[in-house]
Write a structure and sequence with these properties.
It is a single chain. This protein is of the alpha+beta class. Helix content is 14%, strand content 26%. It has a single domain, classed as 3-methyladenine DNA Glycosylase, Chain A. Strand 3 and strand 4 form a beta hairpin. The protein is globular. The two termini are 26 Å apart. The chain binds a DNA duplex through strand 3, strand 4 and helix 4.
DNA sequence: CATGGGATTGACT
DNA sequence: GTCAATCCCATGC
């Protein structure tokens, strides 16, 4: 199947759920820090947990823009959360990057996070943006040709086993199975989806 | 113009 | 398990 390279704009011009699933295993880099994506959730305007549900506003402008851009917003007044805008322009949809496995710049990540444990550097959506140095100033920048790079899974690496679960941290549309995790990674944020609680992660 | 509510995290009981 | 931190912005008076 073609079109699965995230350096190609067509990657993002698809169903946001396919984009989210295919982002698992890809590499995100910002400056000298990089990590492998191990957890993603999808959000779509048709469903009330999505910021775009309320229509086009100043806040959701990027969500309704062209696919392949970063939607970065501040959560709880404290954390920046990173999304990849998907689907056609004028459709509000994005994939929330929820967790990474650190690959490069681990010492820099440690300084930014004030933590030693590699497992905890990027095991949450607010954690990974802090570790990568991604702030809301990058909202609207291109993921194809901008400061945040998204790269395909490294050649020769076995594709991750992606397990599906329900999204977390939301109060609306909680039943939708739009959370995608690498079952083999210990860096997925908790609670782990049900299939991962049976020792699956330990096998990797 | 005032207010309320988060796609969270870390510290504390 | 509970809870505060802290900011943007959408909504309502």
């Amino acid at each position: 199947m073609s079109g699965l390279d995230p350096r190609d704009g067509a990657f993002y011009a698809r169903s946001v759920h396919d984009v989210a699933r295919d982002l698992v295993g890809c590499v995100i880099r910002h400056g000298r820090t990089a990590g492998r994506v191990v957890e993603v959730e999808s959000y779509h305007q048709e469903e009330p947990a999505c910021h775009a549900f309320g229509g086009l506003t100043e806040r959701t402008r990027v969500l309704f823009g062209p696919p392949g851009r970063a939607y970065v917003y501040r959560s709880y007044g404290v954390h920046a959360l990173l999304n990849a805008v998907a689907e056609d322009e004028a459709v509000g949809a994005a994939a929330l990057i929820r967790a990474l496995e650190p690959i490069e710049g681990i010492d820099l990540m440690r300084r930014r996070r004030g933590l030693e444990s590699v497992r905890e550097l990027c095991s949450g959506p607010g954690k990974l943006t802090q570790a990568l140095g991604v702030g809301v100033d990058l909202n609207g920048t291109s993921l194809l040709d901008g400061p945040i790079e998204v790269l395909p899974p490294p050649a020769g690496v076995v594709a991750p086993r992606v397990v599906t679960g329900t999204r977390i941290g939301i109060n609306k549309a909680v039943e939708l199975p739009w959370r995608f995790c690498d079952a083999g990674s210990a860096c997925v944020s908790r609670p782990w989806p049900e299939p991962m609680r049976r020792g699956a992660a330990a096998a990797a």
